[in-house]
Design a protein that fits this description.
single chain; Rossmann fold; 5-stranded parallel sheet; 8 helices; 5 strands; 53% helix; globular; EC 2.7.4.9; ATP-binding; dTMP kinase activity; Thymidylate_kin-like_dom
């Protein structure tokens, strides 16, 4: 007999990560649709951004030149507002939160790419959200040359997307380091596959996650 689980109150935090051009944004809608088939209340948000103030900071962060440490501090300022106004309230109501990027992006982009010391980012992480961690992180990974090719057809690129290969290699390396360090939380998606194969990967990971967290 098939067991039916009740996910009406599913207070989980799921994040999507990956280098620019990895295709993660394309598959967020699929995950949300899949979650809703289980009657899960879900909201989508993003970083930087997610709040009115966060969106103002997003525009600055993606388009204005600034010192790497200023960039890092602004990322966490936007994140603090995001947590207070969106993430925590939703989780307290039993709503599943899907976020396009979170603190892993700071370790990857500001740490790996910008060369901000990892310990400095850890201090900010502990200060800004000591009690908020993703329950599941889906890391979209693919070779750099494929990601760059995808970005080349984009009309308008932000200041990160135009970075050179060594920057993105460092970002990708840091993402893979995080995935290795936190294997229970991370699931690596081979983003160099067809959409159907990627959706199958996502469905497999999500069903396993739901099974482990059934109510």
């Amino acid at each position: 007999m098939k067991i039916k689980y009740n996910y009406q109150f599913f207070s989980k935090f799921i994040t999507f990560e990956g280098i620019d051009g990895s295709g993660k944004s394309t598959h967020i809608k699929y995950i949300i649709k899949l979650l809703k088939t289980f009657n899960i209340n879900v909201i989508f948000t993003r970083e930087p951004g997610g709040t009115p103030l966060g969106e103002i900071l997003r525009n600055l962060l993606l388009h204005k030149p600034m010192h790497p440490e200023t960039e890092t501090l602004l990322m966490f300022a936007a994140r603090r507002e995001h947590i207070a106004k969106v993430i925590k309230p939703a989780l307290k109501k039993g709503i599943c939160v899907i976020s396009d990027r979170f603190t892993d992006s700071s370790f990857a982009y500001q740490g790996g790419g910008r060369k901000i010391l990892r310990n400095k980012i850890k201090i900010l992480e502990k200060w800004v959200h000591p009690d908020i961690k993703p329950d599941l992180t889906l890391l979209f990974d693919l070779p750099l040359e494929i990601a760059k090719k995808r970005l080349s057809i984009t009309k308008s690129l932000d200041k990160f997307e135009v970075k050179k290969n060594d920057f993105f290699n460092s970002v990708r390396t840091e993402y893979l380091r995080l995935a290795k360090k936190f294997p229970i939380r991370f699931r690596i998606i081979n983003s160099n596959e067809s959409i159907i194969k990627i959706e199958n990967q996502l469905k497999k990971f999500l069903l396993s996650f739901l099974h482990k967290n059934n109510i």
